Amino acid sequence: MLDVRRLRLLYEFAAQGSISATAVATGQTASAVSQQLAALEKETGVSLLERTARSAQLTDAGRRLVAHTAHILEAIDAAETDLAAESAEPRGRVTVTAFPTVAVALAGPIVRRLRRYPELQMVLLQQHTVSESLSRVRSGEIDLALIDDWSGQRRPATTGPLTFHHLVNDPLVAVLPVRHPLADKEVLSAHELAGESWIASPEGEPSRMALARLWRTEGISAPVSEFEGLDTILTLVAKGLGVTVAPWMAAAERKDVAVRKVAEDLPGRDVYVVHRTASTGRPAVMTVLQALHQAARKLMAAAEQF
């Protein structure tokens, strides 16, 4: 009998195109991925991958099995949806991944709303990368993923087997120490902050690229200390070590920093919730999705009054 988890891994390999990319997307080591795919080859009795010293690609048999796997995963989703529809009351376990800043902002309202469904259990896991979360949704390992997108371009509602729901546009704000001389102002421009010490994510990170775009547009530069993680950056700002720009959702609940509007037109980030299209009929998944929408609307209503 074929192991469904290994079939999911093969399906992800077909989407990613390499062992290393599959390992990153699934949060495993390349060695573990390779071993699992080799075990699947033993189960099938045929070669699924053509390996060289530096790469691997699907054989004809591997491509045929990937096509079968797509139908298998759809059938599993359909079975889960059909059985869940037996009860109008949402029940069961719904697994969600989210990056920390959004998880903290939305978790409270969602948990309070879901208390009315005693048979429904939501499990919230920390997201490491967007690609890993999308991979885990695609494979069926998790049900919903909250992801951010800094491109400024709206994603299509449906991409392959996944459905994307746009939750909010999370604007960028200036964040300063509470006792900073400029904290008394309601709106700050980039030029007013140009002479400050800045704290930002490392180069290549989405939030750092947004800051770089702002500086490029305004023709300014400033000294930057680099740290990973928005929470770490905001904590260092609170300690008086510099200033930064950050998504509003990341800073709004903090009482140890001053959060101010930015005069320049900054695109911010778009936040999406993603699920397998085949899960659309599952009451439990749709109930959590609705709770996410309502929590996001309530939160951003507060942002508009900011």
Write a structural description.
The protein has 306 residues and is α/β, with parallel strands linked by helices. The chain has eleven helices and 14 strands. The strands form four sheets. It has a six-stranded mixed β-sheet, sandwiched between helices. β6 and β7 form a beta hairpin. The chain is globular and about 70 Å long. Keywords: DNA-binding, Transcription, Transcription regulation. GO terms for molecular function: DNA binding; DNA-binding transcription factor activity. This is LysR family transcriptional regulator. Residues 2-59 form the HTH lysR-type domain.
Range of helix content: 40-55%
Q: From the helix content, strand content and strand pairing, which structural class follows? A: alpha/beta
Number of helices: 11
H-E string: HHHEEHEHEHEEEEEHEHEHEHEEH
User: What order do the strands of the largest sheet run in, or round the barrel if closed?
Assistant: 4-3-5-14-7-6
Number of strands: 14
Average predicted confidence as pLDDT: 87
Distance between the termini: 58 Å
* CA-based gyration radius: 22 Å
Shape summary: globular
Which consecutive residue ranges, at least 5 long each, have pLDDT under 50?
none
Largest sheet: 6 strands, mixed
Percentage of residues in DSSP E strands: 15-25%
Pfam families: HTH_1, LysR_substrate
GO molecular function, one term: DNA binding
Family: Belongs to the LysR transcriptional regulatory family.
Protein name: LysR family transcriptional regulator
